[in-house]
Amino acid sequence: MNPLLNGLNEAQKAAVASPASVLQVLAPPGSGKTKTLTARVAYLIGPKEIKPSNVIVCTFTVKAAREMKDRIRSLVGDGLEAQLIMGTFHSVARRFLVSYGHHINISKNFGIADSSDSLAILRRIIKRRSLNIEPSVARSRISGLKAKNIRSDEYSRTAKSVEKQEFSMLYEEYEDTLRSSNLLDYDDLLLNCVELLRRHPECVANIEAVLIDEFQDTNKVQFELMSLFAQKKKAITIVGDPDQSIYGFRSAEIRNLHKMKNLYPETTVVILEENYRSSGSILLAAMDIIEQDQSRPAKRLLSTHCIGERPVLRRVPSSAAEAKWITTEIQRCKALTGGDLFQNSDFVILLRSASLSRHIEFAFGKAGVPYRMVGGHRFFDRVEIKILLDYLRVISQPSHNDALVRIINVPARKIGEATVKGLLEEAECEQWTMWNLVLAIAQGRRRPKTKLTAQAERGLESFCNLILTSQAKLAEEDSDIMALVTHVLKKLSFEKYLRDSYGEDFDSRWANVREIIAQATDLATAVARGEDWNEDDLPTIDAIDQQPHSSAQDVLAKFLANVALTTEVEKNEEDGNADKVTISTIHAAKGLEWPVVFIPGAYEGSIPHSRAEDWDEERRLLYVGMTRAQSLLYLSCPVKNSVEDQTTLSPFVSPSQTQDMFDIKGPLFSFTVAQDLARILRRKCPPESAMLAGRDLVERTEDDYWPLDGEAP
């Protein structure tokens, strides 16, 4: 047997070694989908001898791409994984646009407008036009249209009402602003790649296999992109689970699985049925809930573990009481299993909405339970890093108006907010970029309409001098990104600026800057050694020319693009390894697992959410939350919510046959229970003596403080 198939069950083996050109692998939670997809990639570039550079693998997160690449490296070695065209849909699309975008009039040095850039552009247009729409709503609406491949010109043709005509104007101006700034937003990366591959299919003439992870999360444009990637050989493998389609608000199309079968009638389907994560009783409850959706394809999900403790569905008097109950249950669980079986980091609180965390955070703080909120400040969102990155953006791409506006007076150059606003309006009225305007003013080639003080004029000259000298530095023959970063920091006196502005936490902020310097150093070293640092490289194809991208300017552009495309930046090790309870939304927890899961707020209006239009998706969301649990699962419902309104139990757990799957209070934690928990988690069971000693550490050994009917004690 091929060694790549070692350790796989029969369904996984069938998926990995399938001779089918078009393959759907339906992978429920905990069924080993990543292991299967990774082995499939390794099988194609190993025994099937497909060149790695002719294989595209698309994931939905940077983290997933990294993990897959590491696993493939361990399976095939020889650096073959580095030759794969692998990453998120957006990063793969960007690679094709960098190499071939000039064929559709996109220059290789385009910038990427991140979410804050897009919002800033929309905010300015809305204010200038006196439109009655929230910028965040407009951005979501534009993104939704682009996800359906509806451009601004197409939308304008169907805009009949006054409201739609106003929005059409906003959409068109937004697109014009991006174009004039040489920017693409995230959706544009996909749309323009679709246009490129439609008009120039020779760009992917070499592609022999396309593999897509989390296929149920794809939207209309991503589906088309998949088909275009595979247009030569029509060899596609997707891994997905319709029961975990929870991103409708991002325009994900659950119908894409059916659409794929219609487009490729020869599609072979392999279903993975064995679950390696959760206890039998957790799976039984989760399956009972998801099977309430009669329209879903029937699938089994079999646990490889023992039946374990039944999940808990607990009624409590209020949201505040619910938070206290969760706190005491965590303490009881740890103490009564001997203190060693569970750590704080084994517990997660999964919320339908982040707004539900207030009472839980308060209760944890009062009880001294350490916790972390998923989605804290990411590295590249920290103020000192954003300032430095904006300088690099303007150096790389002076037409980036929003980046320029953010830094033109940082550190202070006596250029006030009103002056900056006036200059920006002047530039937009003249259809100039902000950079062209301030440079012309600084060089005496233009008299500004905006009134400038003598100090502001000197500030503009200082700013322009910094950008121009930095660009000259970058253009030097032996220049690299490290030299550029060092030059910018020195010209800004950035260390002094941070010390003066943020004295109390200067050390941590400067440490972050040093981390950027280290990244620049690593990149410069890799380039100097001629290492394969440049993942933008695509295989050369005779029928169509690529643009070269190996200069220092290209390295900087790639560095900035990586920042824009990195949606998951890992926290520093100290925080990542800390023993803390996790509080997260269910959406953010997809793909993860914990030994013990709490899902509070199991009432109508919370889950399903009061504003939800698709109850089937809300049911899938609860299913995803429940199937994050390995050994213990708790759902809870307060009789009154946080604003003291009476609640109704969620319809997903209210049927009597569903309630029969749950216990009405937390487990007793006998020695037999502890043995089962340890077996599921593959951990050492604590001695019975330690469990008995733990009884002295808690006020109550049973979950009996709040009456079972949810009334106040």
From TrEMBL:
Start and end residues of each UvrD-like helicase C-terminal domain: 280-591
Keywords assigned by UniProt, alphabetized: ATP-binding, DNA-binding, Helicase, Hydrolase, Isomerase, Nucleotide-binding
Positions annotated to bind ATP: A27, P28, P29, G30, S31, G32, K33, T34
Top-level taxon: Eukaryota
EC identifiers of the protein: 5.6.2.4
Gene Ontology cellular component list: nucleus
Signal peptide span: none
Catalytic activities: ATP + H2O = ADP + phosphate + H(+); Couples ATP hydrolysis with the unwinding of duplex DNA by translocating in the 3'-5' direction
Domain UvrD-like helicase ATP-binding: 6-279
A Gene Ontology biological process term: recombinational repair
Pfam families per record: UvrD-helicase, UvrD_C
Any one Gene Ontology molecular-function term assigned to this protein's record: DNA binding
Assigned protein family: Belongs to the helicase family. UvrD subfamily.
Protein name: DNA 3'-5' helicase
